[in-house]
Protein 1
Amino acid sequence: MLEIKKINVSYGPLQVLFEISLDVKEGEIVCLAGRNGAGKTTLCKAIMGLLPISSGEVNLDGESLIKSPSHLIPRKGIALVPQGRRLFSELTVGENLEIGLMNQRDESSTLEWIFSLFPRLEERLNQVSSTLSGGEQQMLAMARALCLNPKVLILDEPTEGLQPSMVELIRTTTKQLVQKGVSILLVEQRFDAIIELSKRVVIIENGRNSMILDHASLVANPSVLKHELGV
Ligand SMILES: Nc1ncnc2c1ncn2[C@@H]1O[C@H](COP(=O)(O)OP(=O)(O)OP(=O)(O)O)[C@@H](O)[C@H]1O
Ligand SMILES: [Mg+2]
């Protein structure tokens, strides 16, 4: 499904990603972990075409995305929920979703699906999004990303700064999405979430691939991941 091969990414003269590779297969959650500043967000943005990739490949179902302009990537089937969830904060829940649904042919069934995942949003359609709780804002950011029925959803630290009940809810929804066939690349730093959710964890260190652990080795040897996360 999503295949990243040896990509190099720089901010101006400063190279941040070096030969990074990873795969997300159909119906999988792959976690991307690594310390602050390792390059996780940079990788998410590069996949979305928001940063230039100097060399390497990004393929979705065998099709190269490397030359696609960033506004076409979501239509090709990859959606990003950015770190810190950027909503149109002065607009209502409904208006945010309308923007997400632009260019979507089958609006009503998509909305129905989204409200089945996030019933709270349906109850708050007319609420201005800046007045939602942090967890509700995260739900709206995810809902908006789901408006184009992506094959791959990239979530950049979706539970950062949320209270425990919201963390739980976002995790439950993440699992439901995978059951519905969405593949997920999840940037996640919390050890328990990685163990609970991921099929594999890809760890990056200083912009380079450090380690890839599958679920069985994570469970068998949790201290390896703990060490990598610095916990
Ligand atoms: N716009 C930018 N211009 C220059 N350097 C940047 C820019 N954005 C990020 N960087 C640098 O790139 C490196 C990787 O940053 P990135 O945000 O990808 O890390 P991260 O792994 O997502 O960290 P965190 O866990 O804190 O979110 C850091 O050294 C950061 O300072
Ligand atoms: Mg980040």
Protein 2
Amino acid sequence: MTDARAETHPWTANTDAAGAARWLADKAFVVVTTHTKPDGDAVGSTIALARALRSRGVRVEVWYLGALPLWLSEVVGDTPVRSIERDGLPADADPDGIVLLDTGSWSQLDGLREWLAARAERTLVIDHHLQGNGDIASLRLLDTGAAAACQPVAQVCCDLLALPSASRLPAELATPLYLGLATDTGWFRYSNVRPPVMRLAADLIEAGADHVELFRIVEQQDEPGRFRLLAAALSSLEFHSNDRIALMSLKMEDFHRTKADATDSGGFADKVLAVRTVVVAGVLTEVSDGTQGKPPLTKISLRSKDGHGAIDVNEIARSLGGGGHARAAGARVSAPLGDARSRLLDALTQALG
Ligand SMILES: [Mn+2]
């Protein structure tokens, strides 16, 4: 998006929950959608709003983009859902209202961008992110102080159903709303947990949100292969620089032996940050060892601990040709695993000073 467009379409709110509910109330067919690779907040907010609209007799479809979480069907139940990747874009879909949740960025809407751009005049966006594209929707309910999109969506649901408090919501709405609140706050551990988050969580539990079942569905679904792979990673664990650096390495044969796939190593670096002395952790994954007609390639994933003197892993990753965020970053290095490990260790040792 050009700067001129950002000026004529600023990322500013122009409605509140009551206004959004009034706008939705007279719709006949609404499509509810969200960012690609939907997470807990994306799924929770879309399903809750779809159920609220359905209970008012509105025809609703929820559309998802990109890879879907493994637990999706257990949260969605019988609410009508379409995967654009799997089912395609319906040629004849002509909703009189579109609601975009948990994002306002064109870059997160690949596969639906043109369809949405042609219909911005009948689109409502409800989001909590600091940045977005104002031209994505003519009606914008933005609460950048909210920890999750599910917070403003909970209020819209209450207004749609004329309920005085979220504690009176039907349980089938309270449970997905709780999912968004819980996952966007790391199950109520992150710094975005403020009093309204806990008040809404309490109301949703009062309404019957099944938080015990949600935790099982979302957080206790790992395949055994993932933990066999973690065992392999831990057996390679080495500490450097007075135990402040932790490195783990996974070889191609580790994936074959444990029947794990590339996504199964997600979160391994985070686990090692639990060690008191460790300030930065890296996982090196051998993508190609250079023997099968492909040049050697090693993937690096980096995490660092918050606090005074925290290591900026974005900078480290950039020095290796990658990038990311200050606390989480990665790179792909065209080198065998051992060489990549040496280069990474040099960069980390230097950064620690
Ligand atoms: Mn969110």
